[in-house]
Design a protein that fits this description.
Rossmann fold, 569 residues, single chain, disordered N terminus, alpha/beta, 3 domains
């Protein structure tokens, strides 16, 4: 063992957990210390691992999840028992839903006390609580099983469709002592944890035949395509096929958003008019109107590339399922195209898309050119867009209602896996966790574009950002409330309306309290100067961007999902 204070003859559970993680090239833990895992965090740091300590476990879990998405290795979140575990469970469930590989490791009470409900400190049956929200859940009871337990968790997190895994470590396990040599031999190096799954040749041929007969084909890229890191082949598949494509929000940057084949500016048109749609790492969930209804217009046929056979036909019939890992499936389709299995799309189709793109982009340009006072979403985002255009390597985190909706259509991305947002669940609160995870994992600057409501879920992590001196610039779109700051209490009472915050709040002062740099901006020109300066400084910064409190709509673009506003004009 490497720890000089440990005897040569024995080791314990603390050391074996750290050794098992390091043995599998895991070098970072995100978490929050307390009973019974404080010494585990101390030891991990002493043994050369990086421990990033948070103020709330949910945000540590979100950081671990986004690290897993970026690296294809499971991000590790370490929490205390019961309430700490439950805080982390939210992030674990979100990781499972979004197919981000992460492992939530939590200390827990002893089984014999939990099973008899004898009232232990933070007593809870965490293993069974985690099972509905995780891809897999395991408990390790013996020190000699730590190596195999960690190996199982790693493989479960990254193989097939990635997801969240829970690993339960009872307190007595960590203190167990065994022979050091026996402990060393018990460690397991996971070999090929996410093996390639080659698509069946007949499935590939079926897809190519369907594509060959298409009059109005469309490729739809999901975040699974970005996770696959098959960037060159995906780009070649799009370009050599000549097929227009649409990226889902976290797939933006697989090809530059300014690419000629991007149909993002004509999204409604291509979804409604396409006759054959190729889904690459994208699911027909609510974000795509479940593949049916007026969003999709006339009936169409789907080619779906997915590693999970059970995803096929989940909402509508899939004419040509191609089952396998995305890299292998795209390569197979690309080989078929290169061998003459597909012609270029009808110029009438691509021409009609170009015409609508030009019309919509011209309309958007006119909106972005306006300079109202106070700023609105468009004028503020125009300034951010222009600054970020000069730094395509920067990671962008984005959450909110209107802030998310406008930013994903205005801020262009140029490189893959640089945009992180609310994802499949559309939840708020991922902001600072994702920002910290992206900064730690990539070593690159992060710009987090936040609605003032969304920021509130994780705002205390500003202290974490400052403590670790991370190059994160947080921009808060401050319109004094949820959606807008203009609602009033209909009773005339002194309590403000449910959607209203403190008027004219100075979020920039928050980060100054922790030693960061604060900016208060009210114009696009001030935004440009502040963001340029903050990125150049490479230090924790926050820009309080004052925008018109009447800007924004109820629920952003999800008004149809809000029962109180659905159907209202």
């Amino acid at each position: 063992m490497t720890n000089s204070t440990q005897s040569a003859e024995q080791t314990d559970g603390f050391h074996l957990v750290v050794d098992a993680l390091k043995h599998n090239d895991i070098d970072t833990i995100f978490g929050l210390v307390g009973i019974p895992i404080t010494d585990l965090a101390r030891l991990a740091q002493a043994e050369g691992m990086r421990f990033i300590g948070f103020r709330h476990e949910q945000h540590a879990g979100n950081a671990a999840a986004i690290a897993g998405y970026m690296t294809q290795k499971p991000g590790i979140c370490l929490t205390v028992s019961a309430p700490g575990f439950l805080n982390g469970l939210t992030a674990l469930a979100n990781a499972t839903t979004n197919c981000f590989p992460m492992i939530l490791i939590s200390g827990s009470s002893e089984r014999e006390i939990v099973d008899l409900q004898q009232g232990d400190y933070e007593e809870m049956d965490q293993l069974n609580a985690a099972k509905p929200y995780a891809k897999a859940s395991y408990r390790i009871n013996k020190a000699e099983d730590i190596g195999i337990g960690v190996a199982r968790a790693i493989r479960a997190a990254v193989s097939g469709r990635p997801g969240g895994v829970y690993l339960d470590l009872p307190a007595q396990l960590l203190a167990q002592v065994i022979d050091a040599e026996h402990g060393r031999r018990s460690l397991v190096k996971v070999v090929d944890p996410a093996p390639r799954q080659i698509p069946a040749p007949d499935a590939v041929q079926r897809a190519l035949s369907l594509l060959k007969g298409a009059k109005k084909p469309l490729i739809l890229l999901g975040k699974g395509a970005a996770y696959a890191q098959a960037d060159a082949d995906i780009r070649a598949f799009v370009e050599e096929s000549g097929i227009p494509y649409l990226p889902m929000s976290m797939a933006k940057g697989l090809l530059p958003d300014t690419h000629a084949q991007s149909a993002s500016a004509a999204r409604s048109y291509v979804l409604a008019e396409a006759d054959v749609v190729v889904l690459v790492g994208a699911r027909l969930n609510w974000l795509l109107a479940h593949g049916k209804g007026k969003t999709w217009g006339a009936p169409k046929q789907f080619i779906q590339i997915d590693i999970s056979p059970t995803e096929i036909d989940s909402n509508v019939a899939i004419a040509a399922p191609v089952i396998g890992d995305i890299g292998s499936c795209v390569t197979a389709l690309l080989d078929g195209i290169r061998s003459g299995g597909h012609g270029k799309p009808d110029p009438a189709w691509t021409g009609s898309i170009a015409e609508r793109k030009d019309k919509n982009l011209t309309k958007m340009a006119a909106m972005l050119a306006q300079n109202p006072s106070p700023m609105n979403f468009h004028s503020a985002l125009r300034s951010i867009r222009d600054v970020l255009k000069t730094r395509p390597d920067i990671n962008v985190v984005n959450e909110g209602a209107n802030t998310l909706d406008f930013a994903r259509s205005i801020i262009d991305m140029y490189e893959p896996r640089k945009r992180f947002d609310s994802g499949t669940w559309g939840i708020m609160g991922i902001g600072m966790g994702f920002a910290i995870g992206a900064a730690v994992t990539s070593g690159k600057p992060v710009v987090a574009i936040e609605g003032d409501s969304a920021f509130g879920f994780s705002g205390m992590e500003l202290e974490t950002i400052c403590r670790y001196e991370l190059p994160v610039t947080t921009i808060i779109f401050n319109n004094n409330g949820v959606y807008r700051g203009t609602d009033v209490n209909p009773t005339g009472g002194k309590d403000v309306a449910p959607t209203v915050f403190v008027k004219n709040a100075r979020y920039d002062k928050m980060i100054e309290a922790f030693g960061g740099i604060g900016y208060h901006v009210t114009t696009p020109e001030e935004m440009t100067r502040a963001l340029t300066e903050a990125i150049a400084a490479g230090k924790p910064a926050l820009i309080n961007a004052v925008i018109d409190e009447t800007a924004g709509t109820e629920s952003g673009r999800l008004t149809n999902l809000n029962p109180s506003t659905a159907g209202k004009k």
